[in-house]
Amino acid sequence: MPSQSSTQQRNAIIIIGILFFCFGFITWLNSTLIPFLKIACQLDNDIQAFFVTSAFYMAYFFLALPSAKILEKVGYKKGMALGLFIMAIGSLVFIPASYNRSFPLFLTGLFVQGMGLALLQTASNPYISIVGPIESAAKRISMMGICNKLAGVLSPIILGAIVLKNAQSIENNILSATDPLIREGLLGQLAQRIITPYIIITIVLVLLSVFILLSKLPEINNPETAETPGIPEKNSILSFPHLLLGVVCLFFYVGVEVLAGDAIGTYGKAMGMSLDITKYFTAFTLGAMLLGYIIGVFAIPKYLSQQQALLGSAILGIILSLGIYFTHGYVSITCIALLGLANALMWPAFFPLAIDGLGKFTQIGSALLIMGIAGGAIIPLLYTSMKDKLFIPNELSFFLCVFPAYVYILYYATRGHKAGKLKMAVLKSGD
User: What is this structure's pTM?
Assistant: First the structure.
């Protein structure tokens, strides 16, 4: 019969898994919203459309540190419930936005959703890392990744089937409409397709918030950093260079993950592919990520250490980046989709590596890492800007965004995650 502590740990993992499914579903709706809002709001170019990802992911940058302060006051459990409720408010904003076809209002809703997710992620990622042994944290995060990416596979398919049904013919009809009233009517009908899905999402988020609040999710304390005789105690988050380098690593990782998931459809459309086909491309990327997470559950730490998983993922990312640039058509698209496999084990690997040994600084360290999620706002926008403003070829624009990122991740996997720890090891050996 399992002990009470093991039962509590299992229940906690199940509850956090539900949360990861939830914010995975919300996050990967952006891949559908980008082409949908470009048509419904009559945006001029892909740069404007990719403000969807910018508004969503920049919320992490601004709200991560306040989220850490909130968690210090209310704890992990209430923080997660509050994050879900804020996400529900953001989802509710989509209703007036759709009636008015207001792109700024849509972006406001996305930013508020990102605020809630910043709080939720700041709480849930360190929670799942320290709810059990740190050595198996990557395995637990891989399990969360399965929940997250399973939702990510489903969300663009479900929302795409609703709001982008016959999208190419609708876009053609709107472009060919000469009567302004007919054109406005078509745009209004398209925009209002999104109302029912977001009403459902709002209700589910509110119910889940109440469920978390009433659940028996155990509150956990941050581990204390063990003091070593003769070594001064660290009294600042800036004393952990492996964390600071990890923030940069996470910035690049989230940027290329969002690029591979949300921009793959835009990449295909730039090649002349139909919107009716490209709307499903995100599901391929997330399917590859799902496979990677399943591998992580079985391989880490039994066959692979967290550092080895990150190293192998970075090398695969570099190889696929070269494949994207040197191939064309569906082969190039396939390389982008397979970036999902390269990206899958990165978050599970470097998040535990980055927060290892932070002790009382775990919450603030997690918040700094969550700020790195802003890479999802910057790198996709960089891709569209190079493609549409600087007129750099589509394949080269994508390559210039992903290749340097994977090179840096390779550095973090080999040396960056040890920064500061090597000095500590030398000091210890000198005692």
Answer: 0.83
